[in-house]
Design a protein that fits this description.
The protein has helices at about 5-15, 40-45, 80-95, 110-120, 135-145, 155-170, 185-205, 220-230, 275-290, 295-310, and strands at about 50-55, 65-70, 100-105, 125-130, 150, 175, 210-215, 235-240, 270-275, 315-320. The chain is of the alpha/beta class. The relative contact order is 0.14.
């Protein structure tokens, strides 16, 4: 779809229902394709996710608009498809990801699912270090993709998984391709070239505030850098759990965690904290008021976006919904 027809489609959608389910521009085709089974179509399916206006949630902050990227439209069901693919393609280009290597990394769930999905399509074995207390459905999905799981301490969370992945990679470096999602620049660059460009196209560049959570921090760093380049006035707001003990899967409490190598806290104009209960409450609101069943980190993103919007007189607040709620239906708060 070219930009002219894209604009026409946006106008038609706004005229008919007022909801900005905007499709971005043509997918980035700069990555070389891999000569493997079904990977071509799978790679092409990553990105170009809708941007949805939350017209009900944001009713009391009008004329401020809240728009959210629905990242479960990616083939693996989450925003993590973007960096996982970027890191694998980068490793392939560099010659580090070869047929005799096992893909190894630490994950709390969604990045692992992306690795496992792409590994199955491309013909690579996948070994993942994951906390024992990671979501049961996440683990079942990973095993369905034939990924081997190395279960680590639940008390140590993602940091324990990182430590184990480092140990395995150092113990047998010739056996593994270790992308290291917390320190690999291809992570944030996937969002710089992909997520941010889509947002700019979908909003015609009209973004006053961008909000994203901190896990690897790749989404915030990559998207934020590109949006700041496009408009120096765009406010960048990061958020994280309010304490080390939280249930916001995929997010890190930075003061007490191993900080990602590419995380730069100075990029954010403001960093906010979200309580688990606030995120869970927003998950229920989104389901009942917007018809969107999302994960808890997405609930945290909208809670934060709404708080920011309440302090504005006008503006366009854009955030990320990392995944939907299907993998979390076994959680007690539903």
């Amino acid at each position: 779809m070219n930009r002219v027809s894209d604009q026409e489609t946006r106008n038609e959608e706004r005229e008919t229902n007022g909801i900005a389910q905007i499709r971005p521009s043509t997918p980035d085709t700069r990555h070389p394709s891999l000569d493997t089974r079904s990977s071509h179509n799978l790679i092409a399916a990553v990105g170009n996710t809708p941007l949805i206006e939350l017209s009900h949630i944001s009713r009391d902050v009008a004329p401020v608009r809240i728009l959210a990227k629905a990242e479960w439209f990616n083939p693996g069901g989450s925003v993590k498809d973007r960096p996982a693919l970027g890191m694998l393609l980068d490793g392939h280009r560099r010659g580090d990801l070869t047929r005799d290597k096992i893909i190894l990394d630490a994950t709390s769930g969604n990045t692992g699912i992306a690795y496992a999905m792409f590994g199955a399509a491309m013909g690579f074995r996948v070994r993942l270090c994951i906390p024992k207390n990671a979501g049961a459905l996440h683990q079942r999905i990973l095993r369905t993709y034939a990924a081997e799981l190395v279960l680590t301490s639940g008390q140590k969370g993602s940091d324990g998984a990182i430590e184990e992945a480092i140990r395995l990679a150092q113990q047998d470096p010739d056996l593994y391709f270790y992308p290291d999602q917390y320190n690999n620049d291809a992570n944030w660059q996937a969002h710089y070239h992909g997520t941010a460009e889509e947002i700019l196209s979908q909003t015609d560049g009209h973004v006053t505030h961008f909000i994203a959570g901190l896990g690897t921090s790749g989404t915030f760093m990559g998207t934020g850098k590109r949006l700041r380049e496009a408009n120096r006035q765009t406010q960048l707001i990061s958020f994280q759990p309010d304490s080390p003990m939280h249930a916001l899967e995929g997010l890190k409490h930075m003061p007490t965690s191993i900080k990602p190598g590419f995380y730069d806290e100075s990029l954010a104009d403001e960093n906010r904290c979200v309580r688990t209960e606030e995120a869970q409450s927003m998950v229920k609101r989104l389901a009942c008021e917007e018809g969107l069943l999302v994960g808890v980190s997405a609930g945290a993103a909208i809670h934060c976006a709404l708080q920011v919007a309440r302090g504005l007189r006008d503006g366009v607040v854009v955030t990320i919904l990392p995944d939907n709620g299907m993998k979390y239906l076994d959680h007690h708060f539903w």
